[in-house]
Amino acid sequence: MILSLQYLRGLAALAVVYFHIETQIVRIGGEIAPFGSLGRFGVDVFFVISGIVMWITTVRSQPTATEFLARRMARIAPLYWALTLAVVAVALLAPGAMRSTVVDGPHMIASLLFLPWPHPLGHGLSPVLIPGWTLLYELAFYLVFSQCLRTDEKRRPWTVLAILSAIAALGFAPDLPDAIRFYSDPIILEFGAGVVIGWLFTTAARPSRALSLLCLASGLMLAILFTVRPVPLHVLAIGGPVALIVAAFVLWEKSNGVPEIPSLNWLGGVSYSLYLTHILVLPVVRAIWSGFGISSGAVASAAFYVVSIVSSLVVAHLVWKFVEMPLTRLAQGLLSADRGRVGRSGGLAPERTAPAAQSQA
C-alpha cells in the first residue's frame, strides 16, 4: 500500500463531503464555511489516484484485459449497485423521502450498467446515485486501460495518454451526441496523468527530494495562478495542479517514506463508502436539524458542519464494515472461484507473481 495515496484518497472524499454541505446549509439559512468550493476538486484527486493505482497494480500482476476488468468490477460495482437499488426501493416505498430521485425504468437500468443517461429531474447525465457519475468515467478509463495492457510496458503509459487525448480532442467537435460529449470531457486526461505518475513511481529508482518539492511548488504556483487568472479548461486549471501535487506526495514517499497515521489510513479505507453515501446522509442531517429549530448563526452553522461530517463518517464506517467489505469479498471470491474453474479447464492461466523488487504499493 502506498500510504500517501491512501491518505489523499480519504482527504479527497472528506473534501467532497465538506463541499456538499453547502447545499444543505443554505436551505436552513446557515452561513457557508470558507474554502468550501475547494472540496469539489476532490474528484480530480480521485481520478489522478485511479490512474496511479491502475498502473502500479497491473505492472505487478500482469493481468489480461478480461482479468483486469473483472477485478475492477468486483471492486466498484457491488456497493454502487447495492446503494442504487436501496435508493430506488426507498423512492418507491416512500417517494417523499427522496426528493432528488424519481424512479424511471430506463434511467435505473442505465445507472446499473454504468451508462450516462439524462436524469429525470434534470441533473444532467447523472445516475440514480448522483455521485456515481464519476464511476462512469472510471469504467470508461478501465476499458481504455485494459486494451493497452497488451502494449509493451515502456510504451503503455504514453499509449494510454495518447488515446485519452484523442478522446478529449473529439469533445471539441460541434453537435456531438450527449453521451459522446460526456465521455470526451477533458477531465479524462487526469487518469492519464495518474498513469504517467505511476510509471515514474515504478521506474525511478529513488526520486530526489528536489523533484518532489519541485512538483509540489509547481502545483501550488499553478493553482494560485489559475485562481488569479482563470482559464476555461478545467483539466488545465484544476487537473494540472492536482496531478503535480499528488505526484509530489507519491514521489516523496518513495524516496523518504511517510509515517503511518492510523486515522488517515482508516479514512482512506472508508473513502469509497463515504463518497457514495454522504449524499444520502446530509439531507437527513439537515431535516433533523430543521426539526429541532436550531438557530442559523455562525456558531450554529459551524456545529452543523461538524455534525454533518461526523454523521457522514459514522455511516461510511458502518457501510464499509457491513456492506462494502462483505460484498467486495463475495464478489472477489466468486471471481477467484470462477478463475480457478476456468484455469483447471485449460482457460485462463494462473496469475504471475509480482517480482520481489516491486512488492511495495
TrEMBL record:
> Which stretches are annotated as coiled coil?
none
Which keywords belong to this entry? Acyltransferase, Membrane, Transferase, Transmembrane, Transmembrane helix
Q: Which GO terms describe its biological process?
A: polysaccharide biosynthetic process
Q: Which top-rank group of organisms is this from?
A: Bacteria
Asked whether the keyword Cell membrane is assigned, the reply is: no
The Acyltransferase domain covers 3-318
Keyword Transmembrane included in the entry's annotation:
yes
Q: Disordered: where is this region? A: 340-361
**A GO MF term:** acyltransferase activity, transferring groups other than amino-acyl groups
InterPro entries linked: Acyl_transf_3_dom, Acyltransferase_3
Quote the cellular component terms of the Gene Ontology held in the record: membrane
| Transmembrane regions | 7-26, 38-58, 79-98, 124-145, 157-174, 186-204, 211-228, 234-252, 264-285, 297-320
Return the PANTHER family for the record. Answer: ACETYLTRANSFERASE, BLR2367 PROTEIN
Tell me the protein's name. Acyltransferase
Q: Which organism is it from?
A: Enterovirga aerilata
